[in-house]
Design brief:
Helices cover about 55% and strands about 20% of the residues. It is α+β, with helices and mostly antiparallel strands. Strands 1-3-2 form a 3-stranded antiparallel sheet. A hairpin with a 2-residue loop joins strand 2 and strand 3. It starts with a helix and ends with a helix. The mean pLDDT is about 85.
Length: about 60
Amino acid sequence: MNEETMNLIWGAEEIAKIIGRSTRATFHILDSGELPARKVGGRWVVERSQLIRFFMENVA
């Protein structure tokens, strides 16, 4: 596994755990396009670094 692969978070459930939201709320946020994620093969995927950067910019 390379570093880029390890930096990916796969699935709305895993994303929800990281952002501290319910899976349902996370699906809503993902579907609305608010998070820097995309669907790959029917599953949501996001880079951990992009997710952290997204929240840091929105908190500041």
